[in-house]
Amino acid sequence: MKSINGELFKKMIICGANVLHNHHPEIDALNVFPVPDGDTGTNMSLTFSSGAKDIENMETTDIYEVSKRLSKGLLMGARGNSGVILSQIFRGISMGFEGKQEVDAIALAQALSNGAKVAYKAVMRPVEGTILTVIRESTEKALAYVTEGMDIEELFSYFVSCAEESLEHTPELLPVLKEVGVVDSGGAGLLLVLTGFLAALAGDEVERVDIQTASQQMESVAGVDSDGEEGYGYCTEFIVRLDPTKISKFKEENLKKELSRIPGESIVVVQDEDIVKVHVHTLKPGNALNIAQRFGEFVKLKIENMQEQHNSLIEMETSKPVELKEVAIVSVAAGDGVKAMFEELQCDHVVSGGQTMNPSTEDIVQAIRDVHAKKVIILPNNSNIVMTAQQASSILEGEIEVVVIPSKTIPQGLSACIMYNKEASFETNIEEMNEAIKNVKTGQVTFAIKDTNIDGIDIKANEYMALVEKDIIECCPNRQDAIKKVIDKLIEEDSEIVTLIAGEDVQEEDLDDIVSYIEEHYEVEVEATMGLQPVYSYIVGVE
Question: Of 11, 123, 293, 535, which has fewest CB within 10 angstroms of its CB?
Fold first, then answer.
């Protein structure tokens, strides 16, 4: 074929979304660090499925109209850095299609190249050896290869082969990938999408795995309730660490079948070695927990009443317009204790999210609108959410003045909140809050999900890693020992304040033990809280 129109492009998008969906756990598993928060595949799949859902019912042959609608869907559904970059790639492609109802091989190559350029511009400090490299190198080669009258299939087949070659080369550009023995996860996710496109061009259709519950899975992960009243119940999510004696016999499908008898809907079960993530909507969450506990111990657990959430939304929609505040603060955090800390520090709204559950651009946009303020300050508190927050800010440009303080950790966000002064000007507060996050050092403790070696440190599955900023400094069998290693590394002579936040798997006596350790060894002020956050047993900030 010599050209692609909107109808064929729509098939390519849906096929690409299905391929990415079917293989996203494999992308999650490419996580460089052995922490239980590898979510690149999940973020990319949710992002791309958001765009695919927006275009699936379009009836047009205009490729620009389809790409424009896709771009908007990706923009609003983007989650995590990988999702934002993916949305920017297709934003650039859509810009390249402008004014065209269909495109030939040359126009397609030019649009793909524009996608790479737009994505690079969206990242403040582009890193080579990532998804950016894969899209840039493959589009450069495709642009040099294409000729007048070339078949679309020939061009795209060459383009995909170049993307594969570029992906295989990412470990040579990013040493940490080579050390761990993996390719870049974002680039791998992009390649899955392109593979789906190629299949559609060949006339193949790729169906989603477990097609009957696929749409429910996307809705449940994205936080969308069922249409009917009977769909409300309890959104139950948990992570189970399998009993070593039961791992060999455990099967995801068996657990799904047992959960479906509760009854439950929107059931998602994903296994990663000895860790099993479960999501189910059910009227009897206790039954789901009893079933899962037979296989191991809970690492994370969250139950939310969806009927209450639905009622709250209705109340908000029917309430009278409120007077706009001058300034409001929106923060992103997980864990009831951590959320309470932000709320006590003048934060107007806390978006649920963090590691393993990055909010979408739309989630943050909605939160900004919900605080009813003329000016809004956003604290992402996670390096993988900063770009999403910035994208939300750009969407609301001209409607609400939004400033993103690029806090990459919970302690940074808390420190920024402390510096906020209602009596000071907006500009002064922004300056002070930006300065505050520079003066905070962060450490964390979490368990390893696999055996590996990073920077000469042997990591063993199920042991606890001591992390200082982004570096793993030690791996210990005991989490109390791990947090002491973090504290000893972080606290220096000029340190004054230590903020210690305990996760949901830590007992209060364990927290007291660490407070005593700090007070015995260092002359600093200690603020300790049961944050109840998932994934990280301890989060510590030092100023």
Answer: 293
**Tokens found for residue 170:** 């990412």
pLDDT at 540 over 70: yes
- Is residue 469 helix, strand or coil? coil
CB 167 within 8 A of CB 182: no
The 10s digit of each residue's pLDDT in 70-109 is 999 999 999 999 999 999 999 999 999 999 999 999 999 9
- 122 lies in the same domain as 72: yes
The 8-class DSSP code of residue 535 comes to S
Q: What is the mean pLDDT of residues 537-543?
A: 96
Q: Which of 378, 417, 420 is nearest to 395 (CA)?
A: 378
Residues 178-201 pLDDT 10s: 888 889 999 999 999 999 999 999
Whether 69 and 139 map to the same domain: the answer is yes
Q: Do 344 and 283 belong to one domain? A: no
Q: What's the rounded Cα separation, in Å, for the pair 321 and 303?
A: 31
- Rounded Cα distance, 464 and 54, in Å: 42
At 258 the pLDDT is 77
Per-residue pLDDT at 468 exceeds 70: yes
The 8-class DSSP code of residue 207 comes to P
Cα–Cα distance measured from residue 97 to residue 442, given in angstroms and rounded to the nearest whole number = 45
**Tens of pLDDT along 359-418?**
999 999 999 999 999 999 999 999 999 999 999 999 999 899 999 999 999 999 999 999
Name the residue with tokens 């109209």: 65
User: Nearest-5° angle of CA 169, CA 173, CA 175?
Assistant: 110
Q: Residue for token digits 């275009």?
A: 55
Report the C-alpha gap between 459 and 455 in whole angstroms.
10
Nearest to 293 by CA among 305, 285, 283: 285
The domain that holds 42 is classified in CATH as 1.25.40.340
User: Are 374 and 274 found together in one domain?
Assistant: no
CA-CA distance, 48 to 90, in Å (whole number)?
A: 10
Residue 322 phi/psi, 5-degree rounding, is -105, 155
DSSP assignment, residue 335?
S
First to last CA, the chain: 63
Does residue 61 contact residue 102 with C-beta atoms inside 8 Å? yes
What's the total number of domains in the chain?
A: 4
| Helix pair 80-97, 185-201: axis angle to 10 deg | 40
Looking at every residue in the chain, the average pLDDT score rounds to: 88
Whether 446 and 434 map to the same domain: the answer is: no
- The CATH number assigned to the domain holding 389 equals 3.40.50.510
Query: Which burial class, exposed, middle or buried, applies to 36 when counting CB atoms under 10 A from its CB (0-12, 13-18, 19+)?
Result: buried
Dist CA 327 CA 67 (whole Å): 36
Mark 268-277 as b/e (b = at least 16 C-beta within 10 Å). bbbbbebbbb
